[in-house]
């Protein structure tokens, strides 16, 4: 066998041992206890104590080391040191077996906690595994396999069917159905073709694609998702911070209580010194806050992991905790409750002009504008297959409209104040009806004669009405905030079914409304697109950004990012927050109840050290497993 192969085998063995060190030491502890017990049955006292000592060493060394390190460097007591002291105390009064069983069960408990925490992080790891390591780079029509980290902006890569896309980019050749569930949580693959954006970590299901790389490996949406989830994993919610501070104080109280229990009962209750010290050791074990400390963080991590799998990114447990308390949710209108893409709903030709003539003239001039309303008119013209002509002398007036020449005809398109014509009574009635429906009315003029009217309206998201209904059913008030005029805002509000609407707002006005709602109703969540809504998102108790498959601004702005822009996930997020809060309360109540019951039984004298250890450590494992329910 070659030296390289031997080295690989040795490294593999070291990795396995390192990864399973806790389990190996726990098993050794059990073996030493069994050997000590066997030697004890044949009265070989020296070997019995030797193997009990080895059991203490193998099962308790790491806990003793961690506990002493905390005591010396942080000047704090922790649960690990309490357990070891209790075991050594039991050995000092002759209860070697009881102390050894305490060490074994405590070691086993820590090992199981490690496995359960590893299970909690399983989804985080699975997200990281979505990141491909290699890419097929095309250079001078030749393919070469390179590391993803070597890709640069503008590189051309090939992605075959069944492969994961290695980098964010734009399709330049080919079409396919892309499974984006890893990024947006969408269960149905999305059809993509030339000029469409694609994201690293998503799966190419059908055709071969050539993609121009748009972001470096560390800047991809997937990398940012991984960073956010890891950041959320490390950020402690207030309840966990409180429990950890309480643990330090409580550990001192337990030590003082144990010392008093060692000193007073022989004088006050007539207990023997051996029985007194033994009961004090049991008290050290059963009063330790292991289960209480483990009641919170596994639950939060499980819930955050669950949410990430569904395309909901929480930037920390505190936001999940806050979401469970929300009583009011404020929605931005454009791009949140609505698609954010205006569409032509009505076309009214005037002065004997045909529909096609009106649409062609407007589409030809608007093609030179980047305004969303202009794009809506051009898209409408293309859908109707109306011919478009080149425009000349194009000018755009901010907030009013556009002007120019099409086939030599001087055209003006925009608001009523921008054109030269006046409306007659029937035309004014038609305009009033359209505006009362919440539509934006655009006028088209040719050679200073009004030739037609377009009505434009943003459309409600398909699941917006159902989402609002579910929130209201859960007892949450719904509010819409928008800069649009009253008619347009009221129309969308009626369609969505929100409770209240505030219109004609500037970004700073939205902040004022959020503050007002917070004073009136308590905890308020704000949902917006993460750009012009940023001040309001920051002011709300919980800011939720529409991620649009992970736009950079959305990822940086809010406390929660909705990756797939699927509003139906909002009620699920609120429900998950409330469920998490409920599970934590159950865990904390159970942990405290077990401690109180065991302390009471210990004073009565109907519990031994092994029974106390088993009951105490079982409660710790049970609250961790309870928290893991939130992975589902």
From TrEMBL:
Superkingdom per UniProt: Bacteria
Domain P-type ATPase A as annotated: residue spans: 130-230
The name this protein goes by in its record: Heavy metal translocating P-type ATPase
Subcellular location per the Swiss-Prot or TrEMBL entry: Cell membrane; Membrane
Keyword terms, alphabetized: ATP-binding, Cell membrane, Ion transport, Magnesium, Membrane, Metal-binding, Nucleotide-binding, Phosphoprotein, Translocase, Transmembrane, Transmembrane helix, Transport
Taxonomic classification: Bacteria, Bacillati, Bacillota, Bacilli, Bacillales
Stretches that traverse the bilayer: 23-46, 81-108, 249-271, 277-301, 588-607
Leader peptide range in chain numbering: none
Membrane topology: Multi-pass membrane protein
Phosphoprotein listed as a keyword: yes
Record-stated family: Belongs to the cation transport ATPase (P-type) (TC 3.A.3) family. Type IB subfamily.
């Amino acid at each position: 066998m070659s030296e390289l192969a031997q080295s690989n085998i040795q490294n593999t063995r070291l990795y396995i041992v390192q990864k399973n060190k806790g389990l190996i030491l726990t098993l050794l502890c059990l073996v030493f206890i069994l050997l000590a017990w066997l030697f004890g049955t044949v009265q070989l006292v020296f070997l019995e104590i030797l193997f009990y000592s080895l059991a203490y060493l193998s099962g308790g060394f790491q806990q003793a080391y961690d506990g002493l390190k905390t005591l010396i460097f942080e000047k704090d007591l922790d649960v690990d040191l309490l357990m070891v002291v209790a075991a050594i105390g039991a050995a000092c009064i002759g209860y070697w077996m009881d102390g050894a069983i305490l060490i074994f069960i405590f070691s086993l408990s820590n090992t199981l906690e490690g496995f359960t925490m590893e299970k909690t992080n399983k989804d985080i790891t699975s997200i990281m595994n979505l990141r491909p390591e290699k890419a097929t780079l095309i250079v001078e029509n030749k393919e070469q396999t390179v590391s993803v980290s070597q890709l640069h902006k503008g590189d051309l890569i090939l992605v075959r069917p069944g492969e994961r896309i290695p980098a964010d980019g734009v399709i330049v050749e080919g079409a396919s159905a892309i499974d984006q569930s890893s990024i947006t949580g969408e269960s149905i693959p999305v059809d993509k073709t030339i000029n469409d954006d694609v994201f690293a970590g998503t799966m190419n299901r059908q055709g071969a694609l050539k993609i121009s790389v748009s972001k470096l490996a560390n800047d991809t949406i997937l990398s940012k998702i991984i960073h956010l989830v890891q950041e959320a994993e490390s950020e402690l919610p207030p309840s966990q911070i409180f429990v950890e501070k309480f643990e330090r104080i409580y550990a001192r109280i337990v030590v003082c209580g144990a010392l008093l229990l060692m000193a007073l009962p022989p004088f006050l209750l007539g207990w023997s010194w051996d029985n007194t010290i033994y009961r004090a050791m049991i008290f050290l074990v059963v009063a330790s806050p292991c289960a209480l400390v483990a009641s919170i963080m596994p639950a939060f991590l499980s819930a955050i992991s669950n949410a990430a799998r569904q395309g909901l990114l929480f930037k920390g447990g505190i936001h999940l905790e806050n979401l469970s308390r929300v009583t009011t949710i404020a929605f931005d209108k454009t791009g949140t409750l609505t698609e954010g893409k205006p569409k032509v709903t009505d076309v009214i030709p005037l002065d004997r002009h045909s529909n096609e003539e009106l649409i062609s003239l407007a589409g030809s001039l608007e093609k030179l504008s980047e305004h969303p309303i202009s794009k809506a008119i051009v898209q409408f013209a293309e859908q109707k297959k109306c011919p478009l002509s080149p425009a000349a002398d194009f000018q755009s007036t901010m907030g009013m409209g556009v002007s120019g020449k099409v086939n030599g005809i001087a055209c003006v398109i925009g608001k009523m104040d921008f054109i030269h014509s006046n409306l007659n009574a029937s035309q004014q009635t038609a305009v009033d009806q359209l505006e009362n429906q919440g539509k934006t009315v655009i006028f088209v003029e040719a050679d200073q004669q009004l030739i037609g009217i377009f009505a434009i309206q943003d459309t409600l998201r398909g699941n917006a009405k159902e989402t609002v209904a579910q929130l209201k059913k859960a007892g949450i008030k719904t509010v819409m905030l928008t800069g649009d005029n009253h008619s347009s805002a009221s129309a969308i509000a009626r369609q969505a079914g929100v409770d209240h609407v505030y219109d004609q707002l500037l970004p700073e006005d939205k902040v004022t409304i959020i503050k007002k709602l917070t004073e009136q109703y308590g905890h308020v969540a704000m949902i917006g697109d993460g750009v012009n809504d940023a001040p309001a998102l920051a002011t709300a108790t919980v800011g939720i950004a529409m991620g649009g498959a992970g736009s950079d601004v959305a990822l940086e702005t809010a406390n929660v990012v909705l990756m797939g822009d699927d509003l139906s996930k909002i009620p699920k997020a609120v429900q998950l927050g409330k469920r998490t809060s409920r599970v934590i309360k159950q865990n904390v109540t159970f942990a405290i109840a077990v401690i109180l019951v065991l302390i009471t039984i210990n004073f009565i004298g109907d519990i031994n050290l092994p029974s106390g250890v088993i009951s105490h450590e079982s409660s710790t494992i049970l609250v961790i497993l309870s928290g893991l329910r939130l992975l589902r």
